[in-house]
């Protein structure tokens, strides 16, 4: 993790450098503010962190880099909020009528963010935990999307349910995937959805229908997770997408992809605050083992490395 987050490290190192390079005056705080904003921490979290750091700096010995480092670590950790529940629902459950059903995860997000890749990697993580998984290719808009998902499915050794024709109803694929998950006694069904950011109403209708139909197939049990996949390198644009998705569907967690390729680690804090849901997993590369549960302590340590 630390190696992969090497570029994000420039945030913590930058701050540490500024705070330990001699007198801390107003121009130092200006530079700190700029560093935080450049790392996509967002204005609110930036103000809060600066205020808390100012307060801490007054009561510690600023000649001692170790104390400054500790203060910074504590404040960054508080912003990332280690108390949030980041576990994924991944077990069989009982529907209202007593039927045993899988946990269903809907994956939502704009095309190109790494959604399909994330479905494959997530299946890999779950299979490694001995869970049985079925994939549903409900992104029926792009023909290549189902092929790409099925390729991931065979790489990680799980079945992919897809439509036999292009342009099929995504909700019917979701229904079939859940039905197969129930028949196979799977623990988890992961459903890849289309990522067109057409108008908000179109998106709301499509995701709403996929969800309703999946819940019908689940004998009335709810969809356990709606995971929003977000590309960490897209900054404000990504934040905007996140807001749109959270307005049209109840997001339960965020998967932040491409965190290996950015110095903008502040987006973790920014998006958690904007949506009020935790970052649950992070993508750290293109390979099949490059998805990890998000660990606030490891993340902050990597920032300060
Ligand atoms: P989708 O359109 O959202 O389904 O996106 P894809 O899954 O096709 O991914 C788009 C590109 O991003 C592909 O080239 C992936 O290999 C790449 N990608 C996905 N996740 C990550 C990640 O965590 N890190 C890096 N560096 N690349 C990623």
Structure notes:
The protein is an alpha/beta fold. Helices cover 49% and strands 15% of the residues. It is built from eleven helices and ten strands. Helix 3 packs antiparallel against helix 4, helix 5 runs parallel beside helix 6 and helix 7 packs parallel to helix 8 (200-217). The model has no long low-confidence stretch (mean pLDDT 91). Guanosine-5'-diphosphate binds next to helix 5. It catalyses: GTP + H2O = GDP + phosphate + H(+). Keywords: Cell membrane, Cytoplasm, GTP-binding, Hydrolase, Membrane, Nucleotide-binding, Receptor, Transmembrane, Transmembrane helix. It is an enzyme of class 3 (hydrolase). Residues 1-80 form the Signal recognition particle SRP54 helical bundle domain.
Which characteristics define this entry?
alpha/beta, 305 residues, 10 strands
Q: What is the averaged pLDDT score?
A: 91
- Sheet/helix structural class: alpha/beta
User: In one word, what is the shape?
Assistant: elongated
Oligomer: single chain
Poorly predicted ranges = none
Function: Involved in targeting and insertion of nascent membrane proteins into the cytoplasmic membrane. Acts as a receptor for the complex formed by the signal recognition particle (SRP) and the ribosome-nascent chain (RNC).
Domain SRP54-type proteins GTP-binding: 102-305
Keywords: Cell membrane, Cytoplasm, GTP-binding, Hydrolase, Membrane, Nucleotide-binding, Receptor, Transmembrane, Transmembrane helix
EC number: 3.6.5.4
């Amino acid at each position: 993790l630390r190696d992969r987050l090497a570029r994000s490290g420039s945030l913590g190192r930058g701050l540490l450098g500024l705070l330990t390079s001699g007198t801390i005056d107003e121009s130092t705080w200006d530079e700190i503010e700029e560093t935080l904003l450049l790392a996509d921490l967002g204005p609110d979290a930036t103000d809060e962190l600066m205020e808390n750091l100012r307060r801490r700096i007054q009561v510690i010995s600023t000649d001692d880099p170790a104390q400054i480092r500790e203060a910074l670590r504590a404040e960054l950790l508080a912003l990332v909020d280690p108390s949030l529940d980041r576990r994924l629902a991944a077990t069989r459950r009982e529907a209202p009528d007593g039927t045993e059903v899988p946990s269903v995860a809907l994956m939502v997000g704009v095309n190109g963010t790494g959604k399909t890749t994330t479905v494959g990697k997530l299946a890999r993580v779950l299979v490694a935990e001995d869970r049985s998984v079925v994939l549903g290719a409900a992104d029926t808009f792009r023909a290549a999307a189902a092929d790409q998902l099925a390729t991931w499915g065979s790489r990680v050794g799980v079945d992919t349910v897809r439509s036999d024709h292009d342009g099929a109803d995504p909700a019917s694929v979701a229904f079939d995937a859940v039905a197969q998950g129930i028949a196979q006694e799977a623990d988890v069904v992961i459903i890849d959805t289309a990522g067109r950011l057409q108008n908000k109403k179109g998106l709301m209708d499509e995701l709403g229908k996929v969800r309703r139909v999946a819940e019908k197939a689940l004998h009335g049990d709810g969809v356990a997770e709606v995971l929003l996949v977000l590309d960490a390198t897209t900054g404000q644009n990504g934040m905007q997408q996140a807001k749109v998705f959270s307005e049209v569907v109840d997001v339960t967690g965020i998967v932040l992809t491409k965190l290996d390729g950015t110095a903008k680690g502040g987006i973790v804090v920014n998006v958690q605050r904007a949506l009020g849901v935790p970052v649950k997993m992070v993508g750290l590369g293109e390979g099949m083992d490059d998805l990890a549960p998000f660990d606030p302590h490891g993340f902050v340590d990597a920032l300060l490395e």
